[in-house]
Amino acid sequence: MPSKTKSRPLSDIAKRKRIEDELKASEVRYRRLFETAKDGILFLDADTGRITDANPFLQDLLGYSHAELLGKMLWEIGPFRDIAASRGAFRKLQRKKYIRYDNLPLETKGRRHRHVEFVSNVYRVNGTEVIQCNIRDITARYQAEQALADTGKLLEQRVEARTAELLMANRLMKNMLDEGKRAGEMIAKSRERLRNLSGRLQSLLEEERTRISREIHDVLGQTLTAMKMDLSLISRSLASDGHAGHSAKIREIERNVNNIIRTVRRIATDMRPGILDELGVAPALEWLVKDFQKRTGISGKIVLRGVDRTTDTVLSTAIFRIVQEALTNVMRHAAASQVTVSLEKMNNALILEVKDNGIGIMEERIFHSKSLGLIGMRERVLLLGGEVAISGKPGEGTLVRVTIPTGSGAISNV
């Protein structure tokens, strides 16, 4: 049986051997990690700052061979010359045991520009301080961030440019709207002046018609009547003196004078019917429809609802002239056999309708610039603050509908 004193040294040797093997295996594993790492690893002497080792990734990154790096001071290597006067940075590292650069620009031996994340730590190995520098290539990330930042700046510039364009467009639009508003106001004022002028001209025209009608009726009519009386006296005188042969000629002249008198009365009545001024629009419309039927042979009907017999010159004249123009259109264009004129007072408005059973007005004629009668009709109604609606259906006739307010500003009695 072996003694205990001999077995202990053998056991210690085995332990040391196992520890040495484990250390060798650990060194091998670490060396493999060092050699195959995808980040740069650099070892420095903590006292002198000289490079003691550099892994292959760092050699490829910087473009220097292992031999070119060994024994060099860190700040003697081209890429690291700009590390904040590296001597001062090295002293800071010695003092704080740690230093970091999140984005360190480097230039390789081949003058390629790279961006790295640089982290240095000081630690002890077998009682000796060692500096390990881990260097990660972030060039791709930096370029992506830079491209993103450039894109952001470009977008911001475009937004600013578009904003400036929009502001300019808004100013131009505002100026155009202001000019349009001013032009609209000028047009509105011009229309108002033209409408007032039109109203004044129509008023003057009616006054002139009334004057001429009276002149024809009073002067010419009386002269013709006197002439007729003289002819009668001459006829009787010739007959009593035995000149009966001349009586036939005198009677012919007398018939011509009678025809002239009727024509003069009709012209005077057409220009300004006395019934309109004496009794108002309702009786005047009744007379107008009957006269229209007698002259044209077209059956005429008049319907009056809620319309009294008081008079107002402006409104009465407008309604009378509108109906007169509508009946003229029926006679000229409608080929109708029947026409109905209705005038009704409803609430604060007068509703006038002229409807025939003719061929129906074509839509293009309603707003045609040459339809002067319809234009005049609209102008009369607009001057009274009213509305005109004209519609027609082929084979069903035409309807002219006029609405004139009577409550405020317009005339309340007709």
In the sheet with the most strands, the strands line up as 2-1-5-4-3
Mean pLDDT rating:
79
Give the tally of structural domains: 3
Number of helices, where a helix is a run of at least 4 consecutive DSSP H or I residues = 11
- SSE pattern: HEEHHHEEEHHHHEHEEHHEE
Query: Percent of residues in beta strands?
Result: 15-25%
Q: What is the assigned CATH homologous superfamily of the largest domain?
A: Histidine kinase-like ATPase, C-terminal domain
The second-level CATH architecture of the largest domain is: 2-Layer Sandwich
The rough form would be described as rod-shaped
- Rounded to the nearest angstrom, the radius of gyration is 59 Å
Task: Report the CATH topology name of the largest domain.
Answer: Heat Shock Protein 90
Low-confidence stretches: 408-414
Q: Termini, distance in Å?
A: 154 Å
Helix/strand class: alpha+beta
Task: Please give the number of β-strands.
Answer: 10
Q: In which range does the helix fraction lie? A: 55-70%
Question: What can be said about the biggest beta sheet?
Answer: 5 strands, antiparallel
- Highest-level CATH class of the largest domain: Alpha Beta
Key structural traits:
alpha+beta; Beta-Lactamase; Heat Shock Protein 90; 3 domains; five-stranded antiparallel β-sheet; 11 helices; rod-shaped; disordered C terminus
